[in-house]
Batch of 2 targets.
Target 1
Amino acid sequence: MATVKAYAAQSETTPLAPFSISRRAPFPHDVVINILYCGVCHSDIHQVRNEWGDSIFPMVPGHEIVGKVAEVGAAVKKFKKGDMAAVGCLVDSCRTCANCSDGLEQFCETHSVPTYNGYEMDRKTPTYGGYSKMIVVDEAFTLKVSDKLDLAGTAPLLCAGITTYSPLRHWKVGKGDKVAVAGLGGLGHMGVKFAAAFGAEVTVLSTSASKEHDARRLGAHHFVVTSNQQQMKSVKRHFNFILNTVSAPHDYDQLLGLLKTNGTMVVVGVPPDALPVSAFSLIAGRRSLAGSLIGGIKETQEMLDYCAQHGITSDVEVIRIQDIETAYDRMIRGDVRYRFVIDLNSL
Ligand code: NAP
Ligand code: ZN
Ligand code: ZN
């Protein structure tokens, strides 16, 4: 067991503050990672503030982790001391059910173990995330990181990256598709980069007119401000595919109205309340409304390798852990360009 410095919330109403956690001594298949950077996902805010109603306290958030291997268990094959390594949203699962066998550990039929705000396979040891100096994870859930990529910009790939890559791949988005990305935050800006890299014609749907220049720099071909009636009218029944990354309640029917016949809107953003959707928005044009949750381990590695090959990383603003509450406030205001990443040297 090792005692490790971390930042934790003690309850849904207390700010994050310094905290000590214990990490297990490595089992034969474990990798011990000294965390260098951890991205700040909007899910961290939802969970720290118990907006989804399932929070476990004390909570050490963080599931966009990159670091350096400090030690490996005797049976570890993929890593050695000194390698770069990454951990995303999952640290374990049953590994034998149909979904785990298909590389869809996020949908494990028995029990998948989230990196934080969950319990290990023993169902009683709480998991603590990347707002900490060190983590111990089985090599089967530890990802390889290319040394070609900027490390701070790589951290957000572990959630924002895979959560947008996976549905774009599943729905086979590519050349000839007109794709919209709703919400230009952490997930949204990765969605734009991937959709553009896959050859689609990309439009950003945003509440923030000030993000237009960035959207185009990130690879978008068009930019629509959702409060501008005229601009919205110009993209009615226009898209094959909408990737909806919005983190707060908004008008889903308005966005569904932008889909062509047979178009699909995939929801990845998780506002706390149930989605208000009119059946008319779906039956008109035989539209589909779907969802997607992160991605499995194999696909996460595939995404990281794709990023290394194509030089794709996240646009980040590196912060000290002491500034985490300010970062949360700014994210809630939509003021993020486009992912905050904690430098764990500050802890
Ligand atoms: P983020 O960086 O805060 O970005 C969210 C963006 O949504 C904002 O930048 C803003 O973009 C837009 N937005 C915010 N409030 C809005 C409102 N009231 N109306 C319309 N648009 C609004 O958040 P994120 O980290 O990308 O996460 C986005 C959502 O995805 C969160 O709910 C998170 O929990 C969820 N998530 C889901 C998965 C999954 O597996 N499905 C994984 C990770 C995260 P504009 O300024 O462009 O409007
Ligand atoms: Zn996340
Ligand atoms: Zn399983």
Target 2
Amino acid sequence: MAAHQQNKPSGERNRKNTQNGSRTLQVQWGRAWEVDWFSLASIIFLLMFAPLIVYYFIMSCDQYQCSLMDPLVDLLTGNKHLSDIWNKTPVLTYKAAGMYTLWVAFQVVLYVFIPDFCHKFLPGYAGGVQEGAITPAGVVNKYEINGLQAWIITHVLWFANAYYFHFFSPTIIFDNWIPLLWCANILGYIVSTFALIKGYFFPTSAADCKFTGNFFYDYMMGIEFNPRIGKWFDFKLFFNGRPGIVAWTLINLSYAAKQQELYGQVTNSMILVNVLQGIYVLDFFWNEAWYLKTIDICHDHFGWYLGWGDCVWLPYLYTLQGLYLVNHPVQLGTANAIGILMLGLIGYYIFRVTNHQKDLFRRTNGNCKIWGKKPEYIECSYMSMDGTKHYSKLMTSGFWGWARHFNYTGDLMGSLAYCLTCGFDHILPYFYIIYMTILLTHRCIRDEHRCFSKYGKDWKRYTAAVPYRLLPGIF
Ligand code: NDP
């Protein structure tokens, strides 16, 4: 509580300042200090319904062959009661609890106790100790970047088991999917609640905490910016990357193994999902140091949104295509398969090149070449909470001259490709593209609000130079 009382006045002091001629609030870079009714209503809705949404999707695949309508029809026509569905739902088992505990503990060991060695022999890979971006309080955190190594070790062990040791079946994840859901929820809630308590009583960096005074908002969006235990266990980096994203490719492999077991073959659609999402996951770990400069790490506080989201939402809903394909094995025609592959690869190319251009530009402070030329940019300034003035640059060259978030456009193209592998019989596999469109459009708006608060009139000059957000000439 002391930290709370100590922090809030300094935040309020800063809120009264003006910057860059804008009337917006100085150093309000992250989430809103004052919670409007719409944000509060959305948060309460998500806290209440997000776990149910995940359950509904997974249950519909378990009991209704991935039809989202059939459970509703059954319930509305009185054909079934909620208790019928609930009674058919697999319960938490000791086996799942043991598996999940072992899984998370193994990832903790890989994260905390095995310093990165990949950067010593992989040319171009930035692993080992890396610095994050400067926080609003002026802190620069150091991170041990060893996600690629954790991913490689985990997958080598997975394949060694599948092809040589046979300690467990590669379908183990699919076979325990709902019992594991309960474990993931338990961890998600424990982590988020712990983060809230830690924010109040023993924050890692008190000056970077954010209190809105609204319990639900603080629980959901987080108080602490970069909660840590000890020097290296960073909650944001660990929970987003490790149990969630390392698991993503393993979950897909387990789905492919289940197809093989059930139908004696793996369909080309399942291979496409594994390959395209595998590229996305590997890209994430290859560029983990770059991830330190993304909104998740640079601007979001750690609460239920990231804690529960990383444990439950991401592994369960980002992998719906594979789950769907176990229930509905789709064999695509060659032309369709090639078309989807091209869409996915072009989307990935745009996503990667756009992100790389900004990263290169920021790392070299503009002393680089973008598409063979010196980049153009807008000079801008901002203040950190200690009153220090900093300078930055917003690039207007390359894909960043086409639209202000062309990286999101590439991401959306890739997301659409995953969904298209599943054909058009059901809406469930399209959840991902619908969700990503909402997430990334909302992110555009949220990020631009923050950037305007940070850079003031310099941000306006930038938006005048690059008028579109996602699609040049349209939005
Ligand atoms: P960005 O990487 O686009 O980062 C936005 C930040 O970059 C801004 O806040 C600003 O920060 C800086 N910036 C903005 N414009 C410029 C410019 N013209 N020149 C230089 N710097 C600029 O956003 P995200 O962190 O949201 O996304 C990173 C990637 O992750 C994206 O490709 C996105 O698609 C992906 N993603 C994927 C998700 C998933 O669930 N699969 C979820 C979220 C993101 P500053 O304050 O430093 O100026």
